[in-house]
Design brief:
Purple Acid Phosphatase, chain A, domain 2, alpha/beta, 20% strand, Calcineurin-like_PHP, globular, disordered C terminus, STPP_CPPED1, 357 residues, binds fe (ii) ion, Metallophosphoesterase
């Protein structure tokens, strides 16, 4: 991808849009059968539309999504479709989902959705399904098999315990540190469906999985975690190229586990900081091959911005354009067998060097 956001805005005559707003749009290209087969799709995630009262919503979160939609509408050539990566609402209310969908309705092009825990735990996806559609599904597009999972399910015993109200259940799951929550999972029913779905797919066909939580185990205290991640990874193992794209973490995050490439997409609402334990407690990340780069803790919008992902090689290859912050490129380095942030990560050092802005 040679897309440069500033150049793009210039050529589309949208120079008046400054780069200080939170955007999370991923543009992705595939080259399975050569350049003629390339296509791109856009990705917007984690809007967290939050109702204050009546028609009043938290303006910052509204604006993040509105800006993302506006800029996505300027993309030329047009992406083949868009994905929304989950957490459209903050507390799963109809008003929040309706308002979020109203903003999303301005997006020109086909849009598909992944459900997040903030959309789900009030009514267990009932309103979502009536307005948007199924919680998991697959489709094919130009030689690529796409799978959308609902990865934020959890144990029935937790879901069905005697909550004072459905909103209490929602609030328990909505907290970041989540002391009353429960680990996310894909669950047996969906794993069975996924196994059957993937059996029909040729092993040389690129497979892309959209999930809300990471299909890897990163940080359990914040539920940056999917309890049965290994089961999903196991089903993806036979494929030559498998990619997982997820939201939820509101962070710059990437990984390569064998044939599976992981990309987190940034949020339009706000960035989460990186827990100290990411670099200090290796046990929190048993299978990560790279450690997190620390975002600038003094800049609240770091880890929001534009992100361009090139999926041609089936390995991590990403370019970040961050508002008022240094751009970054993360590329799989075949010599060391890991993705490497070219500006921030030297080989061998467990904790990446810190850069002061
Ligand atoms: Fe989120
Ligand atoms: Fe989430």
């Amino acid at each position: 991808m040679n897309m440069n956001r500033r150049a793009f805005l210039k050529t589309t005559g949208a120079g008046l849009i400054t780069s200080v707003f939170p955007l999370s749009l991923v543009k992705i290209a595939f080259g399975g059968q050569g350049p003629a087969q390339d296509f791109s799709f856009g990705y917007i995630s984690d809007a967290h539309i939050q109702q204050i009262q009546g028609n009043n919503f938290v303006r910052n979160w509204d604006m993040g999504l509105i800006r993302a939609v506006r800029e996505a509408n300027l993309l030329t050539p047009r992406p083949d479709f868009f994905m929304f990566g989950g957490d459209l609402a903050q507390l799963g209310k109809k008003e929040e989902l309706d308002h979020g969908l109203e903003i999303m309705s301005s997006l020109r092009g086909k849009v598909r959705y992944v459900i997040g825990e903030h959309d789900y735990y009030l009514d267990l996806g009932e309103y979502w399904q009536s307005k948007i559609g199924p919680l998991w599904y697959s489709f094919d597009h130009k030689g690529v098999h796409f799978v959308t999972l609902n990865s934020i399910l959890t144990y029935d015993s937790w879901v069905n315990k005697k909550w004072p109200s459905p909103m209490d259940r929602m609030l328990a799951m909505a907290r970041l540190d989540n002391p009353q929550g429960s680990p996310f999972m894909v669950g047996r029913e969906q794993l069975t469906w996924l196994k059957t779905d993937l059996e029909k797919v040729n092993r040389s066909t690129p497979v892309v999985v959209f999930s809300h939580s990471p299909i890897q185990k990163i940080f359990k205290p914040w539920n940056f975690w999917t309890e049965d991640a290994e089961r999903v990874q196991g089903l993806l193992k036979p494929f030559e190229k498998a990619t997982v794209i997820y939201g939820h973490v509101h962070q710059i995050e990437y990984n390569q586990i064998g044939n599976i490439t992981f990309h987190a997409v940034m949020a339009t609402a706000w960035p989460w900081p990186y827990p100290e334990s990411y670099s200090q407690k290796a046990s929190c990340m048993p299978k990560l091959t790279v450690h997190m780069n620390r975002a600038d803790p003094f800049f609240e919008r770091d880890a929001t911005g534009w992100q361009f992902i090139d999926m041609r090689k089936g390995k991590v290859s990403m370019h970040y354009q961050l508002p008022d912050n240094k751009n970054r490129s993360v590329v799989f380095n075949s010599k060391i067998g890991k993705p490497q942030d070219v500006n921030y990560q030297g080989y061998g050092s467990r904790i990446p060097p810190q850069t002061h802005y």
